[in-house]
Design brief:
This protein has 166 residues and is an alpha/beta fold. Helix content is 49%, strand content 13%. Helix 1 packs across helix 2 (31-41) and helix 1 packs parallel to helix 3 (51-68).
Length: 166
């Protein structure tokens, strides 16, 4: 299916959201993503994500917060790992993640974990991408919000992407 602009998702449609869209929205780095997540939180769009996507978002926002606050020089997990005193001082990342309460969270279970292997083999996706696509498949969601081009060749999912990310 062709890729469509994120802004073109119709009111009332169901969509599953990848981590990068949520990160761009929560950090304010993409006006398209901010507007889209706002639509989701107002239930204009029936939005879903997964526990594993939220874990990824939480992780990346924690590292970003530590970097922005000057606790670490590089925004990567290895720079923050083992710094318990620093981690205890971080809280903005969690408030951002908790602000997503209008987005339904699909569970992570063994069935989806196993199904993701078939998705990886069929579409050549990495683990986290295959877990997200397996969730969409299991729950019958045919729309995906992402900025990841690895999903572009999956024929049964309609991919929606934001405009340029600064």
């Amino acid at each position: 299916m062709p890729v469509s602009p994120l802004s073109s998702i119709k009111s009332g449609d169901e969509i599953i959201i990848d981590a990068n869209i949520l990160i761009y929205a929560l950090l304010g780095s993409s006006p398209d993503c901010v507007a889209f997540v706002d639509r989701c939180l107002k239930s204009d769009v029936h939005a879903f994500t997964t526990v594993d996507v939220l874990a990824d978002v939480c992780h990346k926002l924690m590292v970003t917060e530590a970097h922005l606050r000057g606790f670490i020089q590089r925004p990567n997990a290895s720079s923050l790992q083992g710094k318990a005193a620093v981690i205890r001082q971080l809280s903005d990342y969690w408030m951002h993640v908790r602000s997503l309460t209008g987005i339904a969270v699909l569970p992570f279970d063994e069935f989806r974990f196993v199904r993701a292997q078939a998705v990886r083999n069929h579409h050549g996706l990495m683990t986290n991408d295959s877990l997200l696509l397996a969730a969409a498949e299991i729950f019958g969601i045919e729309n995906l919000a992402t900025n990841d081009s690895d999903f572009d060749a999956v024929p049964w999912i309609q991919v929606y992407k934001p405009g340029a990310i600064p």
